[in-house]
Amino acid sequence: MDKKFAELSFEEIMKQNERRVHYHIHRLNVRDPHKEFYQEGLVAMWNAYEKYEPDKGPLATYFNYSIRNRMIDLMRKKARALRNDEVFIEEEKKKMDNGNRSCKDRLPLLDFSDIPVDDRSVWKHVRERLTDNQWKWVASFIILELPLKEIARREGVTVEAVKSWGKQARKKLRDAKLKEKLLALVEGA
C-alpha cells in the first residue's frame, strides 16, 4: 500500500475519495434517488482498499476502475431485472387475454368451459350463427386445434384471411345472448 495511505484509516481515505463515487454516478448518467449506486461505490472503494497492491499501480486509479465497474455491473443487474419483469407482465397479460391475441382491443373470449365441447347440438347452434368461413375457423382452430398456417393451406387462402374469419367469429361468440342460449340448450338436454 502507498506510504501515505498505510497510515490512514479507511474512513479518512473515504472522506478524501468520496467525490470519486459522485463523479462516476454523474459520468454514467445514473439517477440515484435511493443512494444505491452511492452505496455500491463505497463498497467498491472498500474492496479496492482491501485488495490494493502498490506494485500494480496507484490506488486512485484502482479506486476509479473498481467504482466504475461495480456501478456498470449494478446497472446491468437492474436492466436485467427490468427485462425479466416486463417478460413476466407480458406473460400475465397473455393469460388474461385467454388466447385472444389477434384482437386489437384485447377483449377476452367469453368462458365457454361450462358448455360440453362434445355436445353436437351446441355446435349445431353455434354453426347456425356463423358464416361458412367463420365456421371453418371454429371447426379447425378451436375444435381440431390446427395452426392458422395449416388451415390456410387446407382452404387455399392466406393466413390473414383465416385470421379475419377468426376475428369475425370471435365477435359473434362474445355475444352474451349466445352464451345464454347455449347454456339453456345444455341445461334443457
Automatic annotation (TrEMBL):
How is this protein named in the record? RNA polymerase sigma factor (Sigma-70 family)
Matching NCBIfam families: sigma70-ECF (TIGR02937)
User: Does the keyword field hold Transcription?
Assistant: yes
The family classification in the record reads:
Belongs to the sigma-70 factor family. ECF subfamily.
Organism expressing this protein natively: Virgibacillus alimentarius
* Transmembrane stretches, start-end: none
Identify the residues that the record assigns to the RNA polymerase sigma-70 region domain, covering every copy. Answer: 14-80
Keywords carried by this UniProt record = DNA-binding, Sigma factor, Transcription, Transcription regulation
UniProt entry tagged with the keyword Glycoprotein: no
